[in-house]
Write a structure and sequence with these properties.
By secondary structure, the chain is an alpha/beta fold. The protein contains 14 helices and eight strands. It has a six-stranded parallel beta sheet with strand order 5-4-3-6-7-8, sandwiched between helices. The chain has a two-stranded antiparallel sheet with strand order 1-2. The N and C termini lie far apart (about 45 Å).
Amino acid sequence: ALVDATIGHGWRLDLEQLSRLAPHAAREDFRNAFLAVKHANKVRLAEHIRAATGIAVDPASLFDVQVKRIHEYKRQLLNLLQVVARYQAMLADPGADWVPRTVIFAGKAASSYATAKDIIRLVHDVGAVINHDERVRGRLKVVFVPNYGVSVAEVIMPGADLSEQISTAGTEASGTGNMKLAMGGALTIGTDDGANIEIREQVGDDNIFIFGLKTHEVAAQRAAGYQPLRLYESDERLKRVLDAIGGGAFSVDEPARYRGLVDSLLWGGDHYLLLADYADYVATQFRVDALFRQPRAWAAKAVANVAGMGVFSSDRTIRDYARTIWHVQPGR
């Protein structure tokens, strides 16, 4: 039956609406088959991760993927801040029913880009601590998949549950990785920026996780004299995260290793407004958890994402170019 079902944290699964976006999303047999294919892709990705890194991850966990060029405006560091916040919360309340999550990073950086290299190293250091902390009981893993390229992307993208597209609004010209991940059945968490806007328009506001400042709000924050230190001082959870990173909790052999990264946020102006978007990003990640607890609802929304990606296909693009720009007809 095409009925609404409340699934918690404000989410509603409107199968009637989904059936208009993607008719198969309302069919239980199709959703189950879809989840079976996704699970097989996640098993394949888990095997690749073990072979490439030696880290064992659970295919039943939420595969949270950020694969792209390593750059400050792409905000891999913001992702790491919420990972550390989650880790600290799990240690504070180990008995809670935490959604198991595997956070997967991959990408390359310019050889001379020192900050990007620091971020990559921090991913490894955070992972080394979390992955070996028995108190977490394997419910949180962090991995950096090496040698990212087309062949590796072909394994990662079909296995992703969540696609991280979290660049500062106004900095992402377009983006195509987000389209490929959505076409592979991943739900997007991201800012209203670049191709995320077009994806949202195709899949509907209820089938994507949008957070953070919009482009005009970023400009307004900067014009008003953005002061990230005030956010640090007013948010105890954020303060604990930054103090842990800057104080050597993930680099005990060199406690000041990441002091520069933290200082760039607190004293260097936080140019890409990580701290301004942090609270909304963390809150949105809990909305992700709430939906992932409902496989039926998650599958329906993932199917709607796949169906909505047809507009980005090369066939549609070339057809439109032929009709509106080149004024030619396909040959037979």
